[in-house]
Structure prediction request, 896 residues.
Amino acid sequence: MTLHLRARRVPLALAASVGAAALIWALWLTLSTERDAILLLVVLTVMLMVAVLSTTLAAPDEDLERTAALHWPWRRAVHLLAALAVVLVVLLATQPTGARFGPAALVVRDSAGLLGLTALCAAVVGAARAWFLPMGWAVVAAMFPQSGTWGALATWAGQPHTSRPAAVVAAVLAVTGLVTYALLGAARRE
Amino acid sequence: MRAVSTAETATTIHPWAVHAEALKVRAGRHLAVDGLDLSLGTGVHGLLGRNGAGKTTLMRAIATVLKPAGGRLTLLGSSVDGRADLRQARRALGYLPQHFGYYPRFTVREFVSYMAWLKEMPKRDIPAATQRAIDRVGLSAKADAKLRTLSGGMLRRAGVAQAIVNDPQVLLLDEPTVGLDPEQRLDLRELLRDLGTDACVLVSTHLVEDVVAACTEVVLINEGQLVWQGTPAALAEQGDERHPGDSPAERGYSALLRSHLAEATR
Amino acid sequence: MSVLGIELRRSAAAGAALITVTVGVAALYTAPGRWSEGWMSLALTVKEYMILLWPIALAAGAWQGRREHRAKVGELFATTPRSRARRMLPVLVAMGASVGLAFLLVVGAGGLWIASTAAYFPPDVVAITLVGALSLVAAAWLGLGIGRLLPALVTAPVLAVAGVLLVFFTAIMRPDWMGAIMSPAYGSSPFYAFQTIDPRVTAVLALFMGGLALTGVLLLVARGPRTSVAAVLPVLLGFGAAAAIVPRDEAALVAPIDPVARELVCTDDAPKVCVTRVNSNVLDALTPLAREGLAVLAKLPDAPTQAHEERWAYPVEDAPTRDAGIVTITVRIDDHGGLAHPDAVVPEMVFGLGTGYGNPECERNGAVERAAAYHLLGREPVSDVGVIPEMIEEEPQLNAEAVELWQGLQKLPAPEALARVTAVRDALLACQDPTGLLSR
Prediction:
């Protein structure tokens, strides 16, 4: 029954995230002369998919969920990893097409980091509002990327795929978010 | 007692507060109310029936949420079945749905005031009317608590408060006693009796003892049609020891249902 | 209690306003150098940051727009006499007023910083700011309408990203005039200090945003699918009206020049030092430095007698004809609105020996010019890095060669050295290669 509750929102979120990515891909394909999508677009597409999928991190009726406490951390971790897989599969699938969303290292880094951050926020403020902070950070980082070590740490999502500090930040966020969300679950808010 | 406006003390030209003739109402594709004739005047009317009998659909139609698919329905003398202007009727209406939707962030007072505003009460009357409604349902202590902090029973009472804030002439309560503890239920019955002295109150409920205690009239419907209408005492006389039930009223209820079903299959 | 008060307290209005003010003020104050020049710079920078603010308002509207669906109040509200349009009015006012006011607060916060130093207040700033507030109101109302139409949880994040993409790609799109109509951030790229935004461009943005706002309202108050379809009309009409008014020529669209801002404001006494009106607050700081530079240049015969701020709008204008009596100075403004890099003023004036940028096709010799300039300045040549603000690195041989030439000049008698330096200057003026003129 709990699966049914979640299932009501998951198909919509899946359809919306994949559909939105497909729309952006199609727009770039038809309207642009370049093959590689610009950094801003790649980061925003990643963030969009992460934000949309993060709405599934809490079911509409959390109370029913907390009956079997033993298995939930694993289920939540799998749920999160599945979301990451969806984002990666969809975006990396654009590599052979006429509109490339890459480089692959950038997509992997930003997907893992932003999803981890969103999961972390979900554990604190609930799934509905979890995307606020990551979205804002990702937009600012992608629009105004800074150079230098501190700048690379602050605007990690917008750094080139070779940036070491950015990769470190993303990895830390990914792992922290995964562990926190798996253990705590989404916060219950109205 | 209700506060009455001068418009209301003018001679009422309608004999019945709610009058339905051969009423048909759809719930989805299913015709939940199928040829219902009903007349309700002042008093507390208990609406009894099995699940799926069409009680909620009937209430929704009277509350002007659903438009009838056929037949006639008049509310306080004005017709509500066509494309007529429903605003006049709605101003004198109070409704508590079975699944009470509310804004969790609003406080009780704010929500009741908001509903009073939605019912186009004059602005200067709203604060006093809100306070009165909250007091009547016994939520004065929680008037400034957010709705999401309330328990199930208190939430239902807040729902009753918003239904009565505009002193409606027609009050429709769908399962108002759900979630109330016995003492709260007694208070609600008292309130219903009080309201029924000068308004037409229609209460839909599963609990036969609530009907017996609070209602001046019982309306029994089954499969979208009127089965029986009469006083609770008359209901008790309908049944005897042969019929299932733990109280005379329950036995009367089962007796009436059984004979209605027997007639239907004939 | 009034319903508007309830909505201001209990809806997303307060949160949206808080986020808008926080993001806007933070964005401004992390880089005050971008807008410390004056009011128009501030207005343009805030316009650039619409890429952050407009999507916030749009997403906030969508978040609020799904309230009735999420709370499942539809059945209860259907029994009330008040029409849907009248019921939506307090929400519209609360959301609109909150984000509009938040925008004005952001601009005001920037204004506090520059109020004491900004000398010129262009009237266009008022219109730009008001239309900016209108843009945010339009975003909020459009978000409300879309949120009501599609009340899913996913709507708000999708609209946030859609908002960013819309503002960004319409700002850089071709044809230009379409971007001018549709993007709240159009025209915000700074090219020069006396730039402005054509009033017609501001007007067409207002028309389009007004259309969007009305579309949002119609989507919010529509009772059925037929009225919802009619909601596209206002935005189409707004776009149509805007397309009729919008200027199509590049001069009006791309960084138009404000002639009043560009006017020169000069000292009363000689030697005359002039700056543009928009920078007139630095005249007092610049004058002694400029006069020092003029005094150095006066060692040469037929030297310039006036110093003016460099006013060439190089992206849109050809190089101006050079006036022999005037030397131009590049004026830079620092984070607090004052003169930046005052130590660079005199060296920059003397480099080039008062001849200006010159024709790029002429043959130049960096070492020769540097040696000549430093001879006038009376000190040994050093690398430009650290002297000229934009220089970050330089060939080391350049300065070594210049030092050698300079030392050669020091050994000569003064009139001979001066004559050679003058020859270098005359060669530059005549577009001739000055190589070897110092070391014959």
User: Anything to note?
Assistant: The mean pLDDT of chain C is 91. The beta strands of chain C are 264-266, 273-276, 306-309, 326-329. The longest strand of chain C covers residues 273-276.
